[in-house]
Amino acid sequence: MVQNETENGGASLLLWLGIAVVVLVLIYVLAKTVKAKAGAATKPGAKFRPSLTAEDVEGIRFRPPRLRERGYDVEQVSDLLDQTVLELRRLADENLRLQQQKADPLSQPVLVGSPVITPDQVVNRKFQTLKIRQGVSPAEVDDFLDRVVLGLRQWNAENAKLRSELSGNTLGNAS
Fold first, then answer.
1. 137 DSSP 8-state letter
2. Rounded to an integer, what distance in angstroms lies between the CA atom of residue 141 and that of residue 125?
3. Are residue 100 and residue 144 in the same domain, yes or no?
4. Are 60 and 81 a contacting pair, CB within 8 Å?
5. Which InterPro entries does this entry report, sorted A to Z (predicted)?
6. What is the separation of C-alpha 64 from the centre of its chain, rounded to a whole number of angstroms?
7. Into how many domains does the chain fold?
8. 29 and 54 belong to one structural domain
9. N or C: which end of the chain has fewer CB within 10 A?
10. In tens digits, what is the pLDDT along the chain, a chain of 175 residues?
């Protein structure tokens, strides 16, 4: 009986060791993958991949608010999203022209246009709330606007980095 318990204990220990090895291997592989992806995004010449595009904003649809919840005014939210689409298109166009100028330094310099809307303006935007169950879900709008702020900041940072590279200032590459 004692020998049987020892054999079961040994088999159990081997099973746990096997599981631990598998988990460690998975962690190692995952860490390598994440590091490789992070490294690719920061390498010189790596293509910028925005987290948000004008098409993403145009395709967003919000549900009505939950039961007993007041919703945001649809017109006000739509106006902000329209401004966001215009700004994302402006930033994407500026980015393309900056990349073209980087490829052909003799081309016309890229003039920086005025922003249609800034990330800070999105953060500070307040919407009128309507009667219960009218409008759009505040939680969904707020979550999406967090993505908008992040996306606008990424576009602005990428364009600033390109302008810095074009001006010969390498301090912008340290980020």
1. -
2. 11
3. yes
4. yes
5. DivIVA_domain (IPR019933), DivIVA_fam (IPR007793)
6. 25
7. 2
8. no
9. N
10. 545 555 566 778 888 988 988 888 888 888 877 766 554 444 555 677 888 999 999 999 999 998 889 999 999 999 999 999 999 999 999 999 999 888 887 777 777 889 999 999 999 999 999 988 789 999 999 999 999 999 999 999 999 999 998 887 544 444 4
C-beta separation of 152 from 166 below 8 A: no
- Does one domain contain both 139 and 159? yes
Looking at the fold, whether 79 and 150 belong to one and the same domain comes out as yes
For residues 93 and 128, what is the distance between their CA atoms, to the nearest angstrom? 33
Task: Calculate the CA dihedral of residues 61, 80, 119, 155 and round it to 10 degrees.
Answer: 60
- Domain identity same for 164 and 84: yes
Domain with 11 in it: 1-46
Residues 61 and 91 in one domain: yes
